[in-house]
Amino acid sequence: MFIIIGAGAIGGTIGAYMLRGGEEVLFVEQDQAHVAAINQNGLSINGYAENFTVPARAITPDQLPTAFAPASLRRVILATKAQATHSATEMIRPYLAPDGYILSAQNGLNELSIQALVGAQRTIGCFVNFSADYLEPGLIHFGGPGAFYIGELDGRQTDRLRELRTALAHWGGGPVHITDNIWGYLWGKLGYGAILFATALSNLSMADAIDQYRKPLVALAREVIAVADAEGVTSIGFDGYDPNLYRRTGDVNDPDLAASLDYLVSLRRRDKKTHSGIWRDLAVRKRKTELDPQMTLIAERGRIHGVPTPRLDRLIAMLRQIEAGIRPLDTANLEEWVVSNE
To answer: Which domains does the chain have, with CATH numbers?
Structure first.
């Protein structure tokens, strides 16, 4: 059995496809309305290519003690928001078997927090870049496919990775790959993620914001790439984002970089999910984003290494103001952010 902690955008999508493929899955979800809907009506996927509903089971965290014995769980997929990583790992730790593992199907470098609590040998890294949103209890929007990689933190090729790939391969967004450099993908996504955080300053779609603000967004990504380089990690590209081109030149008129940006914009235009999950947190769900465990972490690591991140610092400050309700969500924010870094 797979235990998926969090039945939202990532966990709900992965879990629904696993269930349809014949895997045994139990969701642990704190949203009681979502749990009730899943148990009563199943979990529904409103997808870019297909719609379907699968029978599913879900429990709330307070039901864990009656559902499982201590040290009995072997396969856990953690799919919470990054800021809930520590508490969710602490919650599941007593139930994790000595030979079990937690797969971090999240955004950010949450594997660092997980391994600190349960050990590196019980932690598996995961990089996902597909588009999805939680819409309402029992319903997930699967907006578009994307890269999906899993890997041991030390790069080893193991039987459990191969078994896990087989179980995850039921999902409908393309192949699941095994990598010997999961940290390269995770840091690569942080560079791309910084771009998405910046698009969330406004109500523009991801495609429009990236297309209209190419130069400052490339400069922002270069700051993140510089921090990754200082960490000794070579960022890896995916789905139209190539950190090597960003590192080589910040000139958006460079033919290779321009072509990469064109492709990235075209992918975002084809995606049924027009705005980032960050924007959705701010504009729709009215809650805090994953700003601190992702972007603030990068800025802090930059200061440790002496790598300046002025664009990222200003972005963090402005997004915090939006989260606090003292700055409206408006396209003018992007213009202000650009001007403040000139």
So the answer is: 2-180 (3.40.50.720), 184-340 (1.10.1040.10)
Distance CA 48, CA 301 (A): 37
105: which residues sit within 8 A by CB, 6+ positions away? 10, 11, 14, 77, 78, 79, 126, 128
Q: How many Å apart are CA 252 and CA 268, to the nearest integer?
A: 18
Give residue 148's Cα distance to chain centre. 11
Each residue of 269-309: pLDDT tens digit?
Answer: 998 889 999 999 999 999 999 999 999 999 999 999 999 99
CA proximity to 286, closest of 332, 334, 331, 322: 322
Extended strands (E) in the chain? 2-5, 25-28, 43-47, 51-54, 57-59, 73-78, 96-104, 123-128, 131-136, 139-144, 148-152, 177-178
End-to-end CA distance of the chain: 53
DSSP state of 306: T
- The distance between the two most distant Cα atoms of the chain, rounded to a whole number of Å, is 60
